[in-house]
Amino acid sequence: MATKRMGKQTVKFEKPPSIIGTSSVVGLKEGEGPLREYFDTILTDDLYGEKSWELAESKMLREAVKTAVQKSDFNITDMNYMFSGDLLNQLMSTSFAARDLKIPFFGLYGACSTMAEALSLGAMSIDGGYADNVVAVTSSHFCSAERQYRFPLELGNQRALSAQWTVTGAGAAILSNINTGPKITHITTGKVIDLGIKDVNNMGAAMAPAAMDTIVTHFQDTGFSADSYDLIVTGDLGAIGKEILEELVLDKGYNLNNVYNDCGLLIFDNNVQDTHAGGSGCGCSATVFCGYIYKKLMEKTYNKVLLVSTGALLSTTSAQQGQSIPSIAHAITIINDTV
């Protein structure tokens, strides 16, 4: 009998794993944004000393893991599993990093929801007694994503106002059964939701219904509400998706009030940096959580956070075949151990 399940889609951990250390690596543009002081490493070169953007992304992920492990007072060999993914074909950045790190590896693809997916599966492996220490890490790179999904950067194509700016960054979190630090107490695993949106330049609108479904299910399964949290933050809905989500959740009888924000809006200052609808990418919620939010948890500015990473599950193939954009969102409750 699944004794740890609550309601339809939520798990409550019997022995909540702690997040004992994080690390974040970001690019130049992210380092010029409002969260600059919260990141561990800010690149001065988008190639990061490598020969391609894809290899630079892999290096960001690898270095984020090394730094997070070091900050947790562990060694790489102490990590039982690495749960990780990125946006590129066959998880190129992640797989090359895993090759060098030599940690037992689960490759994940949830598009921009991958960080919450990695944290969820890592927490389940620890609570289930299958691991003592794991690393959850994701990455994205503006230039590698543009090359794969859109146009060669050299063309300088005009971007739609509804488009979002892929974050160049990697975020890593170390989860452990050590009883210290903020804890993951609940996870609500999302379902794939597709309302037929086909506009690849408006992924916030495509992902908002999935975020609504997961958040409302989380409230129903747990009995929590918006008032239960100091912060509810989605992965990268951007300005358009955030507004849609607020309306959809309100229609279901829940008001997110003043506790809700979006990582894609936090990481950039759109008035200055012209990122249109905001940030996106696997690295968006990863760097904002592992940089800004985790440090606010450690400072006790936040004591209870709901992280909802959102992902648009399209591909270059599906878009070219005229398919709509399936989306998903995963939610994680993180509570300070003093609460």
Account of the protein in words:
This protein has 339 residues and is of the alpha/beta class. Helix content is 35%, strand content 22%. The strands form 3 sheets. A 7-stranded mixed beta sheet has the order 1-2-10-15-14-11-12, sandwiched between helices. The mean pLDDT is 93.
Q: SSE layout and pairings?
A:
Blueprint: E1 5-6, E2 10-12, E3 18-26, H1 28-31, E4 41-42, H2 53-71, E5 81-85, H3 92-101, E6 105-107, H4 114-127, E7 133-140, H5 142-149, E8 165-166, E9 169-176, E10 183-188, H6 203-222, E11 231-234, H7 238-251, E12 260-262, H8 263-266, H9 270-273, E13 279-280, H10 282-298, E14 304-312, H11 316-320, E15 327-335
Helix pairs in contact: 2-3, 6-7
Question: Oligomeric state of the chains?
Answer: single chain
Report, as a whole number of angstroms, the end-to-end distance: 29 Å
CATH architecture of the largest domain: 3-Layer(aba) Sandwich
Give the topology string: H per helix, E per strand: EEEHEHEHEHEHEEEHEHEHHEHEHE
The global form is: globular
The average pLDDT is 93
Main sheet strand line-up: 1-2-10-15-14-11-12
What's the number of structural domains? 2
CATH H-level homologous superfamily name of the largest domain: Stage V sporulation protein AD
At the fold tier of CATH, the topology name of the largest domain is Peroxisomal Thiolase, Chain A, domain 1
Backbone structural class? alpha/beta
- Which percent range describes the beta-strand content? 15-25%
Beta strands, count: 15
Approximate helicity band: 25-40%
Using only C-alpha atoms, the radius of gyration works out to 18 Å
Uncertain residue segments: none
Strand count, sense and closure of the main sheet?
7 strands, mixed
CATH class of the largest domain: Alpha Beta
Question: How many helix segments?
Answer: 11
